[in-house]
């Protein structure tokens, strides 16, 4: 049987390549600079293994120049260059990578920086150019060659003149079309910013002639422009530098250079991991909440680099949502990229890094909480809500990461406390972790429902964020202690005497309560004597899972379902008001009606709920004042 070779329709293939692999035209520069860097790396590698070659670092660089008049951009390098055969092989055959071959032949393993591997990046030049000219003189050769192509029509190779070893890539930038302008690729500032964005950490200098202006000599107001060759890239990434060489200020500068925020970072974490997967990372915890943080517009993620080249500017998969405020970069050589180098091929390595990073952030926050409380509280003020959202989301599956990081305001300490601190100082008799929900600490402080608990000296956590109660419902318990709302039906307070008397009272007052319930028909599930009230005459409690606070929140949402918490009206039978209510019940049914209505509405007001009919309510008050 005869085996036939696949043939590719190279014209169509090239067209496909150019127009479907890349999503951003600007990456042509990243690809050509990466090739130039590889070419220099190859000479460097040869020099390492061959003593007859000397490698003077200063002699090796990449230069980008623009000529607006001829609409050309030139990328020159002093790298290894290409022979006639190399030009034919590497630039004439799609998907042939001379760099990959070089790595294999020289058994270059991981940890080396050669970037190329797919053999397609070069063709991205056609994203912006209609003609590409390559002039190259190979190391150890005396002849130079010119390769030229207009894209799909094929290419030519002919001998030419070039004084030094290396390669010039000349792009004739496309003319503007009706829909698209290509002029931007002839602008110095635009090229500079593309270099900064993708190639800032290429290890060799990327030079450009930069136009600047200065005061004319002898003048105080007249400026003149001049051109100077400058190195655009930073070369050595800060994360590859030794931690001991770096100062707080260096990290802060990096933070603002990268536009991670206008604030100063509250904390930085510099990680170098060598193991199953190797990577370097610098993470920042910002000091202030970005203005759009709690909106849909906010996009979490870390900058991702592979061998010093930027792959993604916001890799969301590296951060769980609840740590979405973290900024920073990750650089790893162990990532498998797809051929556009824009997307990652496998996410196994990425998942490993993400897990590592998550644990690192967690432990850093825990350390901050332990050693620098003030700083932690500042952090918590900015991002605590996000941690609580994290507890609530994904069915509470992140509780191990988050439960020791959350804090609430405490009735006892009058400041933020952790759950561990609360549980540690719970009285022996105390069964539950108590919390009260409300709009603000000041309002919660005055809630009648808290009276009994405070009287007993129990600590109450104040829930003032909408998410609080939902998060805690997900958490269910902390160190085996369940959470209990101060408005809950059962506060778990064993007080037998009290229980007995209230049972009696309940019996005695049963008819009154039944009477009230029928007046309030449909509004409350039950009316009963309160065990928790001391000085206040009434309050609302709730039966069942849905609390009154949650009802408020759910009903404030768009397309709410009008859910209702089961409300119980509790009456303080030791209060003078109850005596009046009792005598009204016995003597004057109209008055009893009136009192019931007023008491119920008062309870609503205390909860911060709106009352059904404010006019009727005020009229009723007037009636009893007469
Ligand atoms: P890759 O970089 O993934 O190998 P490219 O399409 O970018 O693929 O480049 C193809 C090949 O062409 C490279 O592997 C390299 O051998 C050669 N090449 C491209 N640019 C240069 C250059 N500036 N100097 C020397 N060789 C180059
Ligand atoms: Mg390449």
From TrEMBL:
Protein name listed in UniProt: Chaperone protein HtpG
SUPFAM superfamilies reported for this sequence: ATPase domain of HSP90 chaperone/DNA topoisomerase II/histidine kinase, HSP90 C-terminal domain, Ribosomal protein S5 domain 2-like
Cited Gene3D superfamilies: 3.30.230.80, 3.40.50.11260, Heat shock protein 90, C-terminal domain, Histidine kinase-like ATPase, C-terminal domain
Annotated segments matching region C: 553-626
ATP-binding recorded as keyword: yes
Region of interest (Disordered), ranges: 489-509
Alphabetical list of PANTHER family matching this protein: HEAT SHOCK PROTEIN 90 FAMILY MEMBER
Cellular localisation: Cytoplasm
Function: Molecular chaperone. Has ATPase activity.
Entry's family note: Belongs to the heat shock protein 90 family.
Residue ranges, compositional bias (Basic and acidic residues): 499-509
PROSITE patterns: HSP90 (PS00298)
Gene Ontology molecular function, alphabetical: ATP binding; ATP hydrolysis activity; ATP-dependent protein folding chaperone; unfolded protein binding
Signal peptide, first to last residue: none
Keyword Cytoplasm: yes
Keywords: ATP-binding, Chaperone, Cytoplasm, Nucleotide-binding, Stress response
Description of how the protein assembles with itself and partners: Homodimer.
Pfam families: HATPase_c_3, HSP90
